Amino acid sequence: PQISSLFHSQNFIKPGEQEAARCDTWAQLIERGCMEEDITSPKNDFSSSKNISLSNTALDKGEPIQLRPQEVNLKLRPGEGLPHTFTLDFQRVEGYPVDLYYLMDLSYSMEDDLRSIKTLGNELFNALQGITKKGQIGFGSFVDKTVLPFTNTNPEKLNKPCAETEMYCQPAFGYRHVLSMTENKAEFEREVNKQRISGNLDSPEGTLDAIMQAAVCGERIGWRNSSTRLIVLTTDDGFHMAGDGKLAGILEPNDERCYMDNNLYSKSNEMDYPSVGQVANQLEKNNIQPIFAVTKNMEKVYRELSKRIPKSEVGVLSADSHNVVELIKNAYNRLSSKVTVTHDALPDNVRVTYTPLCPEGGPSGDKGVCNNVGVGQMVSFNVTVTADECMQSEISFLIGPLGMKDKLKVSLSTLCKCECDDPVTVDSPYCNGKGQVNCGMCSCKAGFVGQKCECSIGEKDESSLRAACRKDNGTECEGRGDCVCGICQCYTLPGGSTYYGTNCECENESCEKFQNKLCGGNGKCRCKNCECKPGYEGTACQCKKSDEQCRTPSGSVCSGRGTCKCNQCKCMEGYQRPYCLTCPACQTTCITKGKCIECLGFQTGPFSKNCSQACTSISEFKMVETLPPGKPCDVRDVESCRVFFAIKQLDGEDNYTAQILKTRGKRHVLCN
Q1: What is the mean pLDDT of each run of 10 residues along the chain (672 residues)?
Q2: What is d(CA 103, CA 279) in angstroms, rounded to the nearest whole number?
Q3: Contact 289, 230 (CB under 8 A)
Q4: DSSP output for 213-240
Q5: Residues 6 or more apart from 588 whose CB is under 8 A from it?
Q6: 597: closest CA among 608, 587, 609?
Q7: What distance in Å separates the CA atoms of residue 240 and residue 207, rounded to the nearest whole number?
Q8: CA quadruple 502, 504, 506, 507: dihedral sign
Q9: Which PANTHER family does the record associate with it (predicted)?
Q10: Beta strands 264-265 and 260-261: pairing type?
Q11: How many CB atoms within 10 Å of residue 106?
Q12: Contact partners, residue 288, CB within 8 Å, separation at least 6
């Protein structure tokens, strides 16, 4: 791509040439005789303001560092061919802390699964210790909203929503936070052993309500700032989503905020379920990676959900959940070995793309993916930033791996001004002593205007002088000249001619072309319009003057109902080419001329007293015993007698000849 540069030396602009001529590609400016030292061409500027080395293990002092650099400053020239690329490194730290929140469906069908998890606490902690020495586990449970049609609202059923034979059943509830993050295995086992099954009416559960509260109630859950955050969701059924609340008369949309009262979701029956998009947004915002541990019958449903939630995994539970520990280990390994780097929201005029530099990297795009990344293995990404337009102020955005806290802050601004090394002369002779040179152009003192500050506006108001250069309050000199002392000085065109006219509104190079010739080579361009030579016509003088193809067999031109342009008829509205003979859209003459036929043939009707004046459009008529072949016109006169006639249009818009049948008649009766 050709990148613009600026020649900032004086005496470069020729009379009538725009100041914009200073701006061109480097090669073009050199070709036009510019010296390299007089050319200003700002380059992208990149600097790293925070670049702490990567940590090897989580045992290092302070928070472990998995991403570098951490902060960069970027100044870009806008344009498709002016991006900047830098490298981003990521390394999985050995023993990085893990927070695991076990979120369990306690509807009645999960009874055997609850029994299994009560016996798996020790195994679950051992598995977590195998991943990291800094592991914590929390616990939460959910069923569904306690309103019809989701739950039986009979007081007895609310208190015991399980089967009558079930001895250990807790009252119906939406979402309950049971245990905050802890390293204490005994505490986890104790709280889980207290849990009892519950129940509801319909099959889908309040799953998304529970995930949302677990994601946004960070302080209650106990998520640490620097940890891998996991939600392990176990269920054997589907989920309600946004809009389902209307079935219970719940219309208030979910607002993605935390509502916990005595560890229960207090807005469960007042606020609709969240949408999948809302849940995905909060999980990503809070760097939480869900693992959906579901029964075989629900696998397809949750794999579809996983496609819409970045950094999530699905595993199939056995009938009683005894394989949940192995499922969690496998899902964690899949999540942690896939590194996906992306960014948060960007303005429309900024683009970021990633190119993975790793053995099992994905394609370049708006996300960078490296697969099968081992602990302690460093992978890199080339990050390319492009600014399409100038920005008013500096912006910043974050880049980082999904599901992790580590982020790179990018501060971005654009280079849209040339900083020229001009001599500091307040009253430069080049500006007639009335201004200062800035990038080869004069910046005039107050009271002076013009390319070289040659115009003194005196007591006049500069805005009124400039208004004199605007046609109909439009652009100054139509954007084709400089307004000097209220008069437009027009620019020179690339072809050598100049714009002209009071407001530089005219030029003689952009008239219509025919066969790639201006005005077809048969005329001259005058102020954007072709003036044709004798014998030629048309907007591009492309036609010889002739009416040969416009003449009817009778010799008239376009039947008197059009004009001949470029040897073709341009007909009056409604009439059709080639000769403007017929008008399908016009009202039939049998109707429009009926009253005139009555007064001309039988001296009756509304025009009988002034027939000769009212019916001049029928220039000739005859009373006949029989009409020519064809369907005649048939109208009724004032005496309800039927009048038959044939009418023909002559040349001209309203010019007819008619034949009128002498006899009129009613049904089975002749009229006098």
Answers
A1: 49 59 74 74 88 80 87 89 91 90 93 85 86 92 95 92 84 95 92 92 93 96 92 94 95 96 96 97 94 94 94 87 86 91 92 94 93 92 94 93 93 83 74 82 80 76 79 83 83 81 88 90 91 90 88 90 89 90 86 90 89 90 90 88 90 90 71 64
A2: 15
A3: yes
A4: HHHH-HHHHT--SSSEEEEEEEESS-B-
A5: none
A6: 608
A7: 7
A8: positive
A9: INTEGRIN BETA SUBUNIT, INTEGRIN BETA-2
A10: antiparallel
A11: 26
A12: 214, 215, 223, 229, 230, 231, 282, 403
Please name which of 139, 175, 129, 42 lies closest in space to residue 332, comparing C-alpha atoms. Answer: 129
Contact predicate 100/136, CB 8 Å: yes
With contact defined as beta carbons under 8 Å apart, do 22 and 6 qualify? yes
Per the document, the length of the chain is: 672
56, 325, 486, 500 from 464: Cα distances, Å: 70, 82, 8, 22
**Whole-number Å distance between alpha carbons of 7 and 418:** 10
DSSP 533: P
CB 213 within 8 A of CB 255: no
Strands 408-414 vs 71-76: parallel, antiparallel or unpaired: parallel
In Å, what is the CA distance from 182 to each residue of 5, 98, 99, 135, 251? Answer: 62, 11, 9, 8, 37
Residues in Cβ contact with 666 at an 8 Å cutoff, skipping those fewer than 6 apart: 640, 641, 642
Distances (CA, A) of 102 to 130, 318, 666: 18, 17, 99
> Helix, strand, or coil here: 124?
helix
Q: What is 512-531 written as a DSSP string?
A: -EETTEEGGGSEEEETTEEE
Q: pTM for this one?
A: 0.60
d(CA 430, CA 35): 19
Distance CA 113, CA 105 (A): 9
Residue 227, exposed/middle/buried by CB under 10 A (0-12, 13-18, 19+)?
Answer: buried
Could you give the 3-state DSSP secondary structure of residue 622? strand
Tokens, residue 264: 């229960």
